[in-house]
Amino acid sequence: MSALESRDPYTAGYQSRSADLARAIATEIGLDQDKIDGIYMAGIVHDIGKIAIPAEILIKPTKLTNIEFSLIKQHSVSGYEILKDVESPWSLAEIVYQHHERMDGSGYPRNLKGDEIIMEARILSVADVVEAMASHRPYRAALGIEAALEEIKKNKGTLYDDAVADACLMLSSLSASTRMVASSERVFSIPMVCVFRFSHVLSLSAILDPTKISDTFLNFRLTRDVLFNIMNRTSLFIM
Ligand SMILES: [Fe+2]
User: 130: CA distance to ligand 1 center in Å?
Assistant: First the structure.
């Protein structure tokens, strides 16, 4: 269980499924292995900024108010703040900062447009939307994989990068990949950080389980070091 998952059970497994899908899209597009690894790692931590949002808002079962939604939107900025000083070979902070931007400039937090959005973030944003729509959320049931793919198809070229959307739709046409995206039961998680919050007392422990790291993500030492750095930064940020 990650730091965030301990506070928002609906996020359990969700970040890692987004990471899996983002990696599959990046592979389909033909990015080099280093970029694919970076996208995967960013996918695993992309919503880490939600750690700074009150848990009552994260698990609120009814529609969010405008103020609550603006607080949620802050998670991209908080994620950037947590990750910006983490030593890593990848642009994790920037990818996380941009993961809710949209190609036509309608995203947040900076309303970036087109080429201003790095490819890693364009990929993660599509994976994130598909997973979010396919998953159950506190305020609604899962909308389903078909609705998620329809959303990508409908807004291909406006909200979502053309090539990224095509790769995602191509993957979804393969039955194995569809199962990967659609399975709400599948929980693959690197339990990198556990945060236990008792009133205002916070303790932090890190557990790394190499058996949970996928075969294609082999650079375990590097991964472990980056995750420990993120954990340290997260604890500083919360305290
Ligand atoms: Fe997010």
Answer: 12
